[in-house]
Amino acid sequence: MAEILLEVSGLKVAYGGIKAVKGVSFEVRAGELVSLIGANGAGKTTTLKAVTGLQPVLEGDIRFLGKSIKGQGAWNLAKQGLVMVPEGRGTFTRMTITENLQMGAYVRSDEAEIRADIDKVFGIFPRLKERKDQLAGTMSGGEQQMLAMGRALMARPRVLLLDEPSMGLSPIMVDKIFEVVHDIHSQGVTVLLVEQNASRALALANRGYVMESGVVTMSGKGNELLADPKVRAAYLGE
Q1: pTM for this one?
Q2: Residues 69, 19 contacting (CB under 8 angstroms)
Q3: What is the DSSP letter of 3?
């Protein structure tokens, strides 16, 4: 089996006295696309924030590339190759598209390869190339999502974490975003995809985990979860 790149064990996270994540465990192996699905409030985003050092961990451990990273800051984790595209995109609105992509490579110093990687991102997202000098804040939500994903790729992630990439987008743009997620994964990038859109997320996934009220209640191959009657009843309206 492929190497485990990211392993979360018994993760507990609390806001004040309220436990939002109650002992979650999962793993992501090299080359996989793993989907973490669940309804709004299930604890998915909190889990990602804890993994990436943006939220303190109450209990449990997080291991990346075989070493515990619990308590490390997001900056240090990005340098190691654990890179997140946050919910809400978080683009630098007063910078151009090109400047945003350059910021994604901030921890790198290989200028020639950075330029080559910008060209690669423009190959994945032709719309960004067309508007490379446009301010990010003047773009649509879908275009900003593309930019946020492109900026994350500029860090050359070992594991790319995507938090609700389809949220708030038009149906056409949702199709485009999931198409791009598939393309990125097919190019060899390991992906952890957190999504409310269970059908689309599981259709792409090698494996999936279902979160409810801060715990993982089901796990398995993506296609098996997609066909499971409980999952279909809870998340697909069937």
Answers
A1: 0.93
A2: no
A3: P
CB 83 within 8 A of CB 27: no
Q: How many structural domains is the chain composed of?
A: 1
Q: Please, what is the Cα angle at 109 between 107 and 112, to 5 degrees?
A: 130
- Residue-by-residue DSSP string for 14-76: EETTEEEEEEEEEEEETT-EEEEE--TTSSHHHHHHHHTTSS--SEEEEEETTEE-TT--HHH
- Residue the block writes with tokens 């790149």: 5
Instruction: Say what percent of the chain tops pLDDT 70.
Output: 99
Token digits of residue 174: 């949702």
For residue 146, give both structure tokens: 């593309």
**d(C-alpha 130, C-alpha 125), whole Å:** 9
Helix boundaries (H) for the chain: 44-51, 74-80, 97-104, 111-124, 126-130, 141-153, 171-186, 198-204, 222-227, 229-235
pLDDT tens-digit readout, 70-83: 989 888 898 899 99
**Domain membership of residue 165 as a residue range:** 4-235
230, 203 in Cβ contact below 8 A?
Answer: no
Average pLDDT over residues 174-180: 93
pLDDT(89) > 80: no
CATH at residue 55: 3.40.50.300
Query: What is the rounded radius of gyration, in angstroms, for the C-alpha atoms of the chain?
Result: 17
